[in-house]
Write a structure and sequence with these properties.
heterodimer; A: T-fold; T-fold; eight-stranded antiparallel β-sheet; 16 strands; about 20% strand; B: alpha+beta; 2 domains; five-stranded antiparallel β-sheet; elongated
Chain lengths: ~400, ~140
């Protein structure tokens, strides 16, 4: 009697045996998959992959896009392409950037990208509402201070959310401040009214030789907004676009809970606190802690007052919420320059803009709306820090 | 047939079925233990450190203490993982203060830009990092600085 004949006479028994065997094989396969699950081998996972993540070094910082949705994959790819295009036009390290072309041909209308025109329009708004506290024409002063220096083979250190190189030339980081005379001379080459543009013709002009633009306080934010527009237009469900801490939060989390954004502590390891934010919010922070040098016991950082040409004192960190990252980025710099009192007053006057400012004493100043979304970090190392972890009023 | 069951199974069938079912149950046991015993965030959303360099990205387990040497744009860089935290322990960059500190929560990141080395902790869902994947109070979706 053959096995085949035996099984043929016991159809139910055969079926049970086959089912049991299949269960065993499936169990072994499932357990094995969990054991060997490899983040770098997404192909090993045969379930639908909800998350797409792409990152690159652009705009002088590390840019990360995380997105989710049925069209997330091509949308993220397209968004990264837009970011690279913006980098090519607006990053001072790019040899053919609009900034280099403008600085090289003062007094002439120079064809520029739509990106630069858009950035100039937003910069003009922030310059106006801040009374000149945000002024991208400060390029020559930034160059004098060496905060446009390239420290290595990459695009330069982060923290250039406020100052940035302007003419593509590389300098070295300073170890001592310039003289008062040098600062005054460089200030003579600034002036927002001497920066003009024609949106219809897509041209821009710097009025005088030696002038240059520093877009470090707005270009990253603009790039984040541009990427967000691509993702939203493609129907992506949710995304976080992060350009060195300049953020845009698109959509809502699967849980329906608010996005949780940590705010870096300006003077200690860890975080100052956490922001719980709805989708459609942009966040940007300007701090004095990432680009600076110390000379004779005094810290000289990269956020320069356009009216004096010297690093701003009184504030160490400003975080701004706004409808767009470009606005948040530029306003963070403007509020830093204005100081806690005038800065918070400006933020309170603007629709859908909130601010968190940390002064030199570590005191945290919050706008009314910020109080509702900011929770101080109370645990571990952060509680030891200078920040007072809470609202203490304006 | 007198000793067979009503389903037409003889003792040999029953023995074979018992053996196969036992093997099946034993095979499922570890998986069941995992699903029942593992915390939610380490089940299908596991935390790993991702180190990005000019040569590519690697994933490092958060639960294994070790020092790793990676190559950045400026040279050899040491990434240290201790007690579920990671940091850039040594780097040839000119401003190591820029990336000082530990990464110990999803959403945290340290970037050495001149060296083009990034250390970050991610929460992954179904094998890839997804925005808003974290839901516990220790998880951040991003960091502003």
């Amino acid at each position: 009697m053959t096995g085949r004949a035996h099984l043929a006479r016991r159809p139910l028994a055969s079926a049970l045996c086959v089912v049991a065997a299949l269960i065993a094989v499936a169990a072994i396969a499932a357990a094995g998959r969990l054991e060997t699950f490899d983040f770098l081998s997404p192909g090993a996972c045969d379930r639908p992959e909800p998350g797409v993540r792409s990152a690159d070094f652009l705009m002088g910082t590390y840019v990360v896009i995380s997105a989710e949705g049925p069209e997330a994959d091509p949308a993220v790819e397209e968004a990264m392409a837009v970011l690279r295009d913006i980098h090519r036009h607006l990053d001072p390290s790019a040899p053919q950037s609009d900034l280099a072309a403008l600085a090289a041909s003062p007094g002439r209308d120079i064809p520029v990208s739509t990106h630069l025109i858009a950035v100039l329009e937003i910069a003009d708004d922030v310059n106006r509402v801040s009374g000149g506290a945000f002024d991208p024409s400060i390029g020559p002063v930034v160059h004098l201070w060496g905060f446009d220096a390239d420290p290595g083979p990459s695009d330069g250190p982060d923290g250039g959310s406020d100052a940035g190189p302007e003419d593509g030339s590389a300098t070295r980081p300073r170890t001592a401040p310039p003289t008062a005379g040098e600062v005054t001379e460089a200030l003579g080459l600034t002036g927002w009214h001497d920066v003009t543009w024609d949106a219809a013709r897509r041209t821009a002009r710097l009025a005088r030789p030696g002038m240059s633009l520093a877009l470090g306080g707005i270009a990253k934010g603009y790039a984040v907004d541009s990427a967000a527009q691509v993702l939203a237009g493609a129907g992506v469900d949710r995304a976080v676009i992060d350009a060195g801490g300049d953020l845009y939060l698109l959509g809502t989390k699967p849980s329906g809970e608010p996005w949780r954004i940590a705010v870096r502590h300006p003077r200690a390891e860890g975080f100052l606190g956490v922001l719980e934010l709805p989708g459609g919010t942009a966040v940007a922070t300007s701090g004095d802690y990432e680009r600076f040098f110390v000379h004779e016991g005094r810290r000289y950082h990269h956020i320069l007052d356009p009216s004096t040409g010297w690093p701003v004192s009184g504030v160490v960190s400003v975080t701004v919420l706004a409808p767009t990252a470009a606005e948040a980025d530029a306003l963070a710099t403007a509020l830093f320059v204005l100081g806690p009192e005038r800065g918070l007053e400006l933020a309170e006057s603007l629709e859908r803009v909130e601010a968190l400012m940390v002064d030199e004493a570590g005191t945290i100043h919050l706008t009314t709306g910020m109080r509702a979304v900011f929770s101080p970090e109370l645990s571990g190392e952060d509680s030891r820090s200078g920040g007072r972890g809470g609202d203490d009023g304006d | 047939m007198t000793r067979g069951s009503g389903l037409g199974l003889n003792p040999a069938d029953l023995r074979l079925g018992a053996v196969i079912l036992t093997v099946a149950l034993l095979a499922w046991a570890p998986l069941g233990w995992r699903l029942a015993g593992a915390p939610p965030d380490t089940d299908f959303q596991r935390k790993v450190f991702v180190v990005t360099t000019p040569e590519g990205a690697v994933a490092l387990p958060a639960d294994r203490d070790a020092c790793y040497v990676v190559t950045g744009s400026l040279g050899k860089t040491v990434v240290e993982v201790v007690d579920g935290r990671a940091r850039i322990a040594a780097s040839p960059c000119p401003e190591p203060a820029c990336h000082a500190g530990w990464v110990d929560r999803p959403g945290e990141r340290r970037v050495c830009l001149p060296n083009r080395v990034v250390v970050e902790m991610v929460t992954r869902s179904d094998g890839k990092a997804a925005p808003g994947g974290g839901s516990d109070s220790e998880t951040y979706d991003a960091e502003t600085h």
